[in-house]
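User: Please predict structures.

Assistant: First:
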Amino acid sequence: MKRLFKKIDRKEWIYQILFLVVLFIFYSFDKDSPKIEWSKFVFFLNYVLLAFIIGYVCLPLFFYTKKYLRFFLALALIFGFAYVMEEYVLERIFFSDRRGKYVSNVFYTLLDIVPLVLTMVGFKLALDAITKQVEVEQLRSSIKESELRFLKSQINPHFLFNNLNNLYSHAIESSPKTPSIILELSSVLRYMLYDCKEDFVSLKKEIEHLKHFTALNELQIEDRGKVSFSTSAIPDNYVIAPLILMVFIENAFKHSTASQSDHIVIDIHIDIEESGVLNFKCSNSFLPNANNESLSEGIGLENVKKRLKILYPNQHDLSVAESNNVYNVNLTLYLQSNT
């Protein structure tokens, strides 16, 4: 019994007491007799006891555990007890000279008892449903946070693996671009490790990171093609989920360089509307005879689709298509304001 009371938190006690007070007012109201009769209070307490047993014992033990047969048997016993208690005890105590002299029909007695008791039990069911909904929302939030942490953890190793291989090849060849690659890689890693731990970061910082990331990859193309990166004016009051746009840029470089030895064309443009809508466009050339099957199956693209679904539900529009040997990514994001 102590364990049962411990499970009932203070808020639930308050809600139950307030509800029972209101219910008792309606139950005891009599326009011909404004005075509350002691008998009505005792009868009402009997109903409260029945509802308490059903709501706090039978529901968790039988109903919520799907033992429905036991639950309905328990209800039958409880209402049978209620009938006996009312007809053979309470009425003979308070109405010995009137109703207590004879026993009423079971149907008419239960017709007085059952609606009131079920109203109390219904209120308990409503409280339980609200509590369960809160728990479900908390669980969903926890799962969402865990999934986001997992998805972000996938990005860093994926990025490092690709760029450390490129750095190694330049170092082996004693390329004069090695120091520049290290400097750009250092800027990118500093941002990824320290500045983007939150779910959302400053839009300006994210775009600055994208510029460093693009410059890092552009160093690998040398004179084999053309890379352009342009943006409209970047407002200060917007935030964005970090490392999402980077995936599309990384894929553009990876699959252009994998299928072409020269004439590489990569165009990146970011435009922010006054309403806070970000339009991201990234296009890259490729040769159709090369192996580009992994483009739609890689970790990066699947990762970013999942993150968009979690962080921007019904607030983004992503289209990925190829036409005339050009791969086009168009992403529209409805940004959040930090003010």
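Second:
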Amino acid sequence: MDGKMIGIIGTALRSNLGSLSKPYKLNFSVTYSCQSRCLTCSIWQMHPKNELTIEEIREFAGKNTSFRWIELTGGEVFIRDDIDEITKAFKEHCKGLYILTMPTNSLCNQSLVRRKLELILGLGIPRLAVTVSLDGYRELHDKIRGVQGNYEKAIAMARMLREMQEEHRSLSFVFGYTMSKLNHGALARTIEEVAKEVPGTTYNDFHVNLSQLSSNYYNNTGLDIKADGKEAAREIRLLLGKRHFSSDPVQIIEAAFLRNLARYAETGKQPMSSRSGEASVFLDSFGNVYPSIMSDKKLGNIRETGYYMQSILGSDAAKGVRALIKEGREPLQWTSCEAYQALLGNLASVLV
């Protein structure tokens, strides 16, 4: 077993026994720029300015070295031409970094994406996981995403990633499917149609989330997109029933996430408290630090602390927010960005 994998497992086990002194996961929105025009999200309307520069990100990475898992998100991550340099900064300073994850809407030039991924893979991070966003079959995906031809580009991206996997064992990818009122009942058809175009695709290759409302991230609190709970639970359980068993730790945690996602959709109750603000934090592209993507409780800004995050997380404000989270007083959520850490901090629930 890889030493870095042992490290992240050890950190997860410690989180079962008590509080962690530093977060091991960073959710980092590298940009809010996006070419999509999604009906479920308003990030694309933001037109961001004064986002963190590569020099600032390098300084942040050099002063915050505890991260073992980094999720780079956006906007669209590949809009940043320095995405490989951003990754390199964390790889050089976070010696225990085991896994890097990032989603893509597949709208950037595919040869550019491939070139950037080759550079990132060359850094030697043990696991690189790419999520190809796909919210429906051809016409439905294009409608939800607001871009004609987006489905075709997502399929082409998946084919390219499948080809790259033959050379790079550290690379994995899944399709990221967000359930909302706009795609009720479309999951099975979507998977069947994708399997025709990307041979070898199975139900294990689809990762599902429920649409969420967030004022500090998605900027979509005024949208009517919430999925019907019973219908969503039915589709999630269908997905679970079609998946084949895997001994891969990520797949085991994913299955636990989906079981709890179905319960969450059906009951409207969060399965367990998150570990936001402790096991993980959210850093936006302007340097603002939040407990999670779903929480609008700003804890501070790294530009105001010399790029040290620990002084922000050690503040009375941050301690107060973590206390509220432990009491269950947090934004209602069960997204993979936060839920995986909750499950790793409550491993008994993974086997239920």
